[in-house]
Structure formats: C-alpha cells, structure tokens
C-alpha cells in the first residue's frame, strides 16, 4: 500500500472554522529516524504553506496502532 495523507480535525469539517492543520501521514516504509523525518516534513510544509500551526502525526511500518490514527482515518479526508 502506498503512502497516505489524511487531513483531520477542524480543517476537514466544513461546518467548523479554520484552526490548525492536522495531518496524519502514513507510510508502509520503515523510517530509520521518525523524529528526523517528522522535523523535515514539518519544515517543508512551513516553507510551502507559510507560518501556520501544524500538527503532524507520522505512522511508519514500525509504529504501533494508537487511537489517534483511528480517529484521523474515521473523521478525516484522505488527500
């Protein structure tokens, strides 16, 4: 299965007003350093989108399932 990006939270609900951008990024790859990958993703998104409040949840092949992943998938929009 390829990489997947989910937008969830208030930005995924048209009835709510803006707010921060909540993203779930999933990959089937094993990331050798998830913290470094997360920092690089965050930096690249800030450069592309401007100074915005971003919350990024990163799940690679070794990350155990957690409630936040299920919530993001259930309530979010896949990009």
Element-by-element helix/strand order: EEHEHE
- Counting helices, strands and paired strands, the structural category is alpha+beta
Biggest sheet statistics: 4 strands, mixed
C-alpha Rg (nearest Å): 13 Å
The top level CATH class name: Alpha Beta
Largest sheet, spatial ordering of strands: 3-2-1-4
Number of helices in the DSSP assignment: 2
Got a strand count?
4
Protein name: Nucleotidyltransferase domain-containing protein
InterPro entries: NT_sf (IPR043519)
Organism: Methylococcus capsulatus
Give an overview of the whole structure:
- InterPro entries: NT_sf.
- This is Nucleotidyltransferase domain-containing protein.
- This protein has 79 residues and is α+β, with helices and mostly antiparallel strands.
- The chain has a single domain (4-78), classed as 2-Layer Sandwich (Beta Polymerase, domain 2).
- The protein is 32% helix and 24% strand.
- It has two helices and four strands.
- It has helices spanning 34-49, 67-75; strands at 4-8, 21-26, 54-59, 77-78.
- It has a four-stranded mixed beta sheet with strand order 3-2-1-4, with helices on both faces.
- Strand 2 (21-26), helix 1 (34-49) and strand 3 form a beta-alpha-beta unit.
- The longest helix is centred in the middle third of the chain and has 16 residues, at 34-49.
- The chain starts with a strand and ends with a strand.
- The mean pLDDT is 91.
Give a quick rundown of the structure.
The protein is α+β, with helices and mostly antiparallel strands.
């Amino acid at each position: 299965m390829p990489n997947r990006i989910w937008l969830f939270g208030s930005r995924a609900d048209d009835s709510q007003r803006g707010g921060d951008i909540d993203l779930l990024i999933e990959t089937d790859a094993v990331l050798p350093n998830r913290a470094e990958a997360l920092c690089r993703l965050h930096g690249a998104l800030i450069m592309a989108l401007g100074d915005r409040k971003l919350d990024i949840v990163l799940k690679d092949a070794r990350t155990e399932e957690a409630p936040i992943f299920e919530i993001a998938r259930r309530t979010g929009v896949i990009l």
